[in-house]
Amino acid sequence: MLIDWFTVIAQIVNFLILVWLLKRFLYKPILDAIDAREKRIAKELADAAAKMAEAQKEHDEFQRKNEEFEQQREALLNKATEEAQTERQRLLDAARQAADTLLAKRQEALRNDAQNLHQELSRLTRQEVFAIARKALADLTDTSLEQRMVEAFMRRLREMDEQSKAGLTHTLQTTSDPALVRSAFDLPEPQRAAIQQTLNETFSAKINLRFETAPNLISGIELIANGQKVAWSIADYLTSLDKAVDDLLKQQKDKADAATQASAKSDLNTQIGKRAYEIYEKQGHKDGQAANNWEEAEREIRQEKYPAKVEPAHKAKAALKPEAKAEPELKAKAEPETEAEPKPEATEASKPEVKTKAAPDVEAIDTPKPEAKAETKPEAKTAPKTEAVDTPKPDAKAEPKPEEAKPAPKSQ
Amino acid sequence: MHLSPDEIILWQFGLFKINATIAYTWLLMGVLVIGSKLVTRKLSMGLQRTRWQNLLEILVTGIQQQIAEVGLHQPRKYLGFVGTLFLFVASAALFTVIPGYEPPTGSLSTTAALAICVFVAVPMFGIAESGIVEYFREYLQPTVIMLPFNIISELSRTLALAVRLFGNMMSGAMILAILLTITPYIFPIALSVLGLLTGMVQAYIFSILATVYIAAATRTGKPAPKSAKTQAT
Questions:
Q1: Is A24 a domain residue?
Q2: Is the pLDDT of residue A88 over 70?
Q3: DSSP class of A308
Q4: Which of A165, A371, B192, B195 could form a disulfide with B172 if both were Cys (CB 3.0 to 4.6 A apart)?
Q5: More confident residue, A67 or A281
Q6: DSSP label at A26?
Q7: Do B53 and A33 touch (CB under 8 A)?
Q8: Residue from the list B3, B29, B47 with its beta carbon closest to the beta carbon of A14
Q9: Taking residues A326-339, what's their average pLDDT?
Q10: Partners of B217 in the beta sheet?
């Protein structure tokens, strides 16, 4: 028999024991370990997935923010550019306006200077003429100036034309008040008598006279009767002289103006400025080239406009020179105030923009040419210089730099 | 020349005796249990683990997977029984490489004992799964007339299981012994390798059949078990 039943039972028992032992020592621990590991892996995977999801979310968020930021940046940039453009335009306008204002002010100031000088000259001339006349008279004759004056006065009375004589006669005869004879000096008795006599003769009547001294009469003598007046004074001559000077000045001024307009002087710098800005734009808005641009523009404009400049020759000389002697003093006095030769520094100072960019020659151009003043000088030896052409200095316009918007008009 | 290791009696006291079958079975048990204990004494829960642990994990999960493939939904419940069947039979065949060793499965007593275990275990698992009434009602399916046939089927398959394993294991050892006497040296070695292979196959077949029977018993009211696998071997 192949089956031993004892062995069979023993093997069944053995097998059951083995089952229990293996369960205890093999399957359970191994399965537990596997379970634990799987759990752990699952957990880690879940964590990783969660982290991934979070990262994705953050990434999305970041991207969104980035885009938003980009857009904002774009918008800001655009806005800033626009604002800068506007501001630039505004500054340019302001600078131009300031330059214009400054120019106008300067022209006004020059005009005022000219006027003041003119007045001063008139006054001086008057005084000088008077002094010279007095001296000349005194030197040439033995008689005193007053005596001569009285004589001249009397001669005038005698030589009065009929009509005025009749009017004056009528006045003198009808009025009861004595006629007033005023003089800048005290008339000595013989002269008073002579005047009385002349009057009597002239008007064929006895004229009541009252003599009076009026120092403010400029070396003259006058007869006043009821509102009518016969006078002789140096002031008369001076007035004539004054008138002559005025006429001359006006004439010259007109001439100068005509010349200015003809040569479009005042436009010159504007044109140069425009050209300079064109060059500036052509070069691609490069800063720091302003001076060079200006020079170039000026050179071009000049070549276009004045291939050969004709200087308007003002000959003020001929006009007035009352007395040769008068010249030296006049000149001496006049100069300090007139600024006939504008000093470079003065010019520069008056121009706000010169500091920043004006090329050296620009200043030369800009030298405000107070020709008017120069010409007012009686001697008028100062022949207007060639630069007269370039007079206008509105270079301020030419430099459309925002920085110049704040010009310091300290000089004037 | 003996057909079964049962015939080698090492110690006998009346009815009690210790023959080679029992002795080698104890040896196998000792190796399996001590080896398992040594490896599982310090198990790693992390990703890093020892090679031995890895080997055991492969074995256990492999068996578990096979049980699940057969159709048992809770493989862990049957892992102890089926897994031990496989490990015991497989190690019994594997140890044949050791000279002088007699596989305990080469004894019809051992295979009968294993078959009896399966014979008892199958209804037990079935009852545990679906209740005693439900389980025995299965024998009356589809009709009451089928009851004797069902009982015969139960008995015959247990017998077949025992004899199949015994025949394979015994023949392997027998052929080896005969060939050793006829053609020593090379030929027995080739056959020994073949014996290893058949041993492993038998271990697989034995445990899988047991699983299939258990699956059939526990699948009350569920689709019929795959009888194709049963017939295959």
A1: no
A2: yes
A3: S
A4: B195
A5: A67
A6: I
A7: yes
A8: B29
A9: 42
A10: none
- Nearest CA-CA distance, residue B73 and chain A, Å: 17
Å from B132 to nearest chain A CA?
23
pLDDT at A255 over 50: yes
Please tell me the predicted confidence (pLDDT) of residue A244. Answer: 79
Beta-bridged to residue A210, according to DSSP, are: A180
**Rounded to the nearest 5 degrees, what angle is found at the Cα of B222, between the Cα atoms of B221 and B224?**
105
Structural domain total, chain B: 1
| Mean pLDDT within A86-107 | 94
Give pLDDT, residue A340: 42
CB contact under 8 A, B117 and A15: yes
Q: Which three-class secondary structure state does DSSP give residue A181?
A: strand
Q: Within a domain: residue A184? A: no
> Would the pLDDT of A47 be above 60?
yes
> Which residues in chain B have Cβ-Cβ distances shorter than 8 Å to A6?
15-17
**Is the CB of B116 less than 8 angstroms away from the CB of A7?**
no
Q: Which domain holds residue B127?
A: 5-232
Amino acid sitting at position B28? L
What one-character-per-residue DSSP string does A11-25 give? HHHHHHHHHHHHIII
- The rounded distance, in Å, linking the Cα atoms of B93 and B106 is 9
Number of domains within chain A: 1
- Residue A252 in any domain: the answer is no
Percentage of chain B beyond pLDDT 70 is 90
pLDDT tens column, A352-410: 443 444 444 444 444 444 444 444 444 444 444 444 444 444 444 444 444 444 444 44
Alpha-carbon distance B160 to B26, whole Å? 25
Q: Within its chain, how far is the Cα of B29 from the centroid?
A: 14
List the domain range (segments joined by +) for residue A315: 79-102+259-405
Question: Cβ(B38)–Cβ(B51) under 8 Å?
Answer: no
A126 SS3 class: helix
At residue A278, φ and ψ (nearest 5 deg) are: -60, -45
CB contact under 8 A, B110 and A40: no
Interface test with B, best of A5, A20, A21, A27 (most B CBs within 10 A): A27
Q: For position A90, what pLDDT does the model report?
A: 94
Please tell me the predicted confidence (pLDDT) of residue B79: 92
In a domain, A132, yes or no: no
